[in-house]
Specification:
single chain, 424 residues, mainly beta, four-stranded antiparallel beta sheet, 1 helix, 50% strand
């Protein structure tokens, strides 16, 4: 009744239908609604956080207010906002100074490291980091409670001779690459890096201003700008740190790259090998670690990395989470109640540079996806946020803070405004 060509066509269609059904049966992501509402933020934002009660936003931003030739007058400012009412609750200036401008009109400060602002776990205090100093404020009026000077690791200078330009000296300055307050203790974890081969984790007690613990990762450190993997357990007894096992654009090594440390003694309690060049991690109250990739996109590889979930106690790989044909990368955040997670789900392509013979990342779009935990069913997907890079989810998972950081490890200040997105 049917010729050979007919049977071949039927076989192909059956395979396609079966394949589609199998994909749907194995966790294909359903269509997700966008955020129900968004609340815009203001100014050049360097860092931000959502209060535990989800009523306020704390921002650290650079305020430029005078220009005279190549000089720019600026101030580092801490602000607390009632974001839903778009109302400024309190504001305080951390410092004022001068910076230069490059040929593109961007300001820069060669020794300027990133700034951070975080609420404490109870929401009563705001912790700000600027220029090797932690300043603790009361949330309600930003009155100063205490300041803690951080010495940090020393700078290191290197000398070399160029055939074209002669002798040079380059100084690697220590910078704070990540900072997180504990959810249920008066502790703050500070990650220092220097160059690409040195890192140190330090923990301070905010109530006394004294250092508690310092830890140098075993086997050294491999750092790059995208890595800010630092997270606390829900009990505040353990702090987790991601230590990339290779430099960017190389394949990760089969070595432990996420460490769980006792927050008081520094004793290693957990070692996990993710198989990623980890950009960020987050913990859940179910004793899980979520890890996302931050490696370069290759010509033939790493186009669609998946979010990976591990058991904290055993280090066992529990599951992979895909994102409708896109990669899950760069940032991940989990709500304090453990009910929701958010991560960038971006379509990134390889743009091959024939001059340098390297593959450069080029985002086709940049969206974030909010999942319900623990089954990772999709709650919502944002619109294309081409100018954002930071994600933080609120305590219940109802709000997501997203913005483009006005800073980088190199010290550039090229930030922009962000927004808070609401998801019922």
């Amino acid at each position: 009744m049917f010729g050979r060509s007919h049977w071949l066509a039927v076989t192909v269609w059956v395979a396609i239908i079966v394949g589609c059904n199998c994909a749907a049966g194995q966790g294909a992501i359903p269509s997700a609604r966008p955020p129900s509402k968004s609340y815009p933020l203001h100014g050049e934002i360097n860092s931000g956080d959502i209060s535990p009660d989800e009523a306020l936003i704390a921002l650290e931003r650079t305020s430029k207010h005078k220009t005279n030739g190549s000089e720019v007058r600026f101030a580092e400012v801490i602000e607390v906002w009632d974001f839903r009412a778009d109302k400024l609750v309190a504001q305080v200036e951390l410092r004022e100074g001068d910076v230069k401008q490059d040929t593109y009109g961007h300001s820069f400060d060669p020794q300027r490291d990133p700034r951070f602002v975080r609420f404490t776990g109870d929401g009563n205090l705001v912790v700000a980091y600027c220029d090797h100093k932690l300043t603790i404020f009361q949330t309600k009026d930003l009155a100063v409670v205490r300041s803690i000077m951080l010495e940090g690791p020393p700078s290191v200078s290197r000398s070399f001779v160029s055939k074209r330009t002669g002798p040079h000296t380059v100084t690697d300055w220590p910078v704070v690459q990540a900072l997180e307050t504990a959810p249920s203790a008066t502790l703050v974890a500070v990650l220092w890096t220097r160059g690409m081969l040195y890192g140190r984790l330090e923990i301070y007690d905010l109530s006394s201003g004294l250092p508690v613990m310092a830890w140098d990762p075993p086997g050294g450190w491999t750092s790059f700008d995208r890595n800010r993997g630092l997270s606390w357990s829900s009990t505040s007894q353990t702090v987790f740190l991601a230590v990339p096992s290779a430099i960017p654009c190389l394949s990760p090594l089969s070595l432990p790259d996420v460490f769980g440390l006792d927050a008081r003694s520094g004793a290693i309690q957990t070692k996990i090998t993710t198989g990623l060049l980890v950009g960020d991690i987050a913990t859940t109250p179910r004793h899980e670690i979520l890890a996302v990739d931050s490696n370069c996109v290759g010509v033939f590889k790493n186009h669609h990395p998946k979010l990976k979930v591990f058991d904290v106690g055993t280090g066992k790989h529990l599951r992979d989470v895909s994102a409708h044909g896109r990669g899950v990368r760069y940032r991940v955040s989990v709500s304090r109640n453990g009910q929701r997670a958010v991560a960038w789900t971006s379509d990134v392509k390889c743009h091959f540079d024939w001059g340098d013979m390297v593959c450069n990342d080029r985002s086709v779009n940049l969206e974030f996806t909010v999942w319900h935990l623990p089954d990772f069913s999709v709650i919502a997907t944002s619109q294309d946020l081409y100018s954002a890079d930071i994600l933080r989810i609120s305590s219940s998972g109802r709000y997501v803070l997203s913005y483009r950081s006005g800073q980088s490890i190199s010290g550039a200040t090229r930030g922009g405004s962000g927004a808070v997105y609401e998801f019922p």
